[in-house]
Amino acid sequence: MRTALIKMLSAAVAMALATAAVAQQQKLSDADYMAKAMSAAPETVAKGATIAAMEGGKMRTLQKGSNEWTCMIMPDGVPMCTDPAGMEWVHALVTKTTPPDKVGFMYMLTGDNGTSNVAPGAERPTPDNHWVKTGPHVMLLGAGVKAMAGYQRTLDPDPTKPYVMWADTPYEHLMIPVK
User: Fold this and answer.
1) By Cβ atoms counted within 10 A, which residue in 29, 87, 95, 127 is the most buried?
2) In terms of Cα–Cα distance, which of 90, 83, 137 is closest to 105?
């Protein structure tokens, strides 16, 4: 199942990749790519994860994992590691389809470059897209977020505290800072 998810994700991500991001990732050696991808999660998770890289619209496995986690570098250069449900959620986000009705978990322990809190996929901040940049964090993805009350659900949240990104959309998820 994970292989099928990786194939689906690779096709969807390939369509979304910017030429500059691809060029940046291609400059990394396999060892450097793996080290950067694995920096997204705790060592105990990352060392057993599948490490995948996008190349020419296809996903190439650099390391076959011994656990259910997959680590990769996203098109914007940010490393992430996620479980199988998280891979399904990312695939749904990229293909603009309905996310799975299950809870996923993602590590992004190096932080992110920021994203619009109203326009998933926006490439840069604009005066009206409520850009949020979060430091090291984990994400709770999928159906479970809707039942969580008490977290910030504003367009301009304080990213040093847990908040719901893309609130009231099918892709809402809980961002939880860890440092």
Assistant:
1) 87
2) 83
Assigned domain for 82 exists: no
SS3 71: strand
The pair of structure tokens assigned to 142 is 């999928």
* 107 and 159 both lie in a single domain: yes
The range of the structural domain enclosing residue 57 comes to: 2-76
Distance set, CA 15 to CA 21, 163, 171 (Å): 12, 29, 19
Backbone CA torsion sign across 91, 52, 132, 17 = negative
If one counts the domains in the chain, the total is 2
**Full-prediction pTM beyond 0.90?**
no
Length of the chain: 179
Condensed to tens digits (0 to 9), the pLDDT of residues 94-108 reads: 888 999 999 999 999
Write the single-letter amino acid at 121.
G
Q: Model confidence over 1-58: pLDDT tens digits?
A: 544 444 444 433 433 333 334 444 458 999 999 999 999 999 999 999 999 997 877 8
Pair (19, 66) in one structural domain: yes
- Rounded Cα distance between 39 and 17, Å, is 21
**Which domain-ending residue is among 37, 61, 76?**
76
Residues 6+ apart with CB under 8 A from 127: none
Distance CA 15, CA 113 (A): 20
